[in-house]
Amino acid sequence: MSGIILRTENLTKSFGGLVAVSNVNLKVAQGTVHAIIGPNGAGKTTLFNLITGVLKPTSGKVYFEDRDITGKPPHYISSLGLTRSFQIYSIFPNLTVLENIRLAVQAKWKNVRWDFIHPTSHYKDVVWEAMRIASITGLYGKTNILASSLTPGDKRKLEIAIALAGNPKLIALDEPTAGVSLEEVAPIVRLIKKLRDEMKKTVVVIEHKIDVVLEVADKVSVMNQGSILAEGSPKEIVENREVQKIYLGE
Ligand SMILES: Nc1ncnc2c1ncn2[C@@H]1O[C@H](COP(=O)(O)OP(=O)(O)OP(=O)(O)O)[C@@H](O)[C@H]1O
Predict the structure, then answer these.
(1) Where do the domains of the chain lie?
(2) CA nearest 165: which of 78, 69, 52?
(3) Ligand 1 centroid vs 12 CA: distance in angstroms?
(4) Which has the least CB within 10 A, 17, 22, 38, 43?
(5) What is the ipTM metric for this complex?
(6) Fold of 1-81+168-250
(7) CB atoms within 10 A of CB 230
(8) CA–CA separation, 113 vs 36, rounded Å?
(9) What is the dihedral of CA 240, 242, 247, 250, to 10 degrees?
(10) Which among 11, 14, 15 is the best mutation to test ligand 1's pocket, defined by most ligand atoms within 8 Å of the CB?
């Protein structure tokens, strides 16, 4: 049994009178893919925002590797090894795939100074690392393509590549297959498995496509109206009557 890398304790976020996340106690085991599912407005994105420091909770705690990260800013949380892929917004459309990944690597390598005295060797290391990440994410043959020209599936891979730049321990993916054509879903599923199986990352993923969840997740937490309604293996979740009710009605 793996250790717990991320956990929340009675995590709550209210927006005025609306409780978007209510007393959530989430436990994510190291080296697993943990899916968060639930109907629209269930609180999944708000939960992600609380975990990654984009929002401060109204009450409750977030622990990453037993360190209290509650209310800490995103750059600090990211520096500890918990990174989120920001949909599309993290991509510069008018730069190539390689330039996008290179900028992400450069931003993470704090010791790299971009001066005019030592540019060449540092530049080579950063480019080398960017090529390595492009290769891992299946973008090796597309490094010179402008990000704006990528297919939706490859854009998602580029988001994951950018998130990988700092060599995080845990990657939070918000709907990595959203807007992706059917043929492009399988390569993304393979990439998520590769992150876990080969790169030993922990992945927390918000995902609407239940077949993707069944294929990739070790554990599933189902949210409804701000709370966790059920947790278990994908098989347990699809067989759960309560879960069936919120998805299919009575
Ligand atoms: N900044 C905000 N201000 C006010 N209400 C908000 C804010 N962000 C989210 N909400 C509300 O909180 C609730 C949970 O929203 P959230 O986006 O977390 O749900 P979700 O499960 O991610 O939904 P979806 O699957 O549609 O993305 C919703 O009722 C939403 O309208």
Answers:
(1) 1-81+168-250, 90-167
(2) 78
(3) 13
(4) 17
(5) 0.96
(6) Rossmann fold (3.40.50)
(7) 18
(8) 39
(9) 120
(10) 15
